[in-house]
Amino acid sequence: YYLRQDERFAGYRDAYLQYIALLFELAGIADGEAKADAIMALETQLAEVHWTPAENRDVEKTYNPMTLAEAKELAPGFDWDTVLAEANLGSPETLVVEQTTAITASGALTHSVSLDTWKDYLKFHFINDSAVYLPKAFDDARFEMFSKTLTGTLEQRDRWKRGVQLLNRSMGEAVGQVYVERHFPPESRVQITELVNNLSAAMEER
């Protein structure tokens, strides 16, 4: 999406630039177009230093166990201690680094790219990741970019249906327990248990 130069991918990049600027506008953050240009430039630099899909499929090349000290030497641009502490990982004896050269280059970008650009980059991705939970304009913009433009999906599922799916995925068991307490009396449990036992016995006889 970042590096191919044919017309289709250039169109995707133009749409993405407009999307970044729109999210900043919706969030009430000024200079969205300028921030979008800087973010696109940064993400393109990140794409340029990352490995190709073929390289990522090489299980030997992507398996690089090393000590924390070796990781720090590989990418001194990263504040490894802070990153690991914030992730509640402490000081592991061994880290498995996949894209070694990409880690080195990405670490260097933390210093060569301005701090303001990194802040805007993180702001944008925080808003983007949260768009489905924000007011409808954010949700619609994200759908337009990632579903309609990139994959050709023309219609989004109703928001209430997606809300039910989210609730079921995150709290399905807890909601189920409340449902059973309210709507599943003890006598129904007895009936179901008897039915299951009878079915099990019938299966064993076969």
Overview features:
two-stranded antiparallel ribbon; 2 strands; 206 residues; mainly alpha; extended
Number of strands: 2
Mean pLDDT reading: 93
Low-confidence stretches: none
Which class of secondary structure composition applies to the elements? mainly alpha
N- to C-terminal distance: 58 Å
The percentage helix is over 70%
Beta-strand content:
under 5%
Largest sheet: 2 strands, antiparallel
Gross morphology: extended
Order of helices and strands, N to C? HHHEHHEHHHHH
Output the number of helix runs. Answer: 10
Widest sheet: strand order?
Answer: 1-2
Q: Round the Cα radius of gyration to an integer and report it.
A: 25 Å
Short description:
This protein is an all-alpha fold. Helix content is 71%, strand content 3%.
Structure commentary:
The chain has 206 residues and is an all-alpha fold. Helix content is 71%, strand content 3%. The chain is built from 10 helices and 2 strands; from the N terminus they run αααβααβααααα. A two-stranded antiparallel sheet has the order 1-2. It is extended.
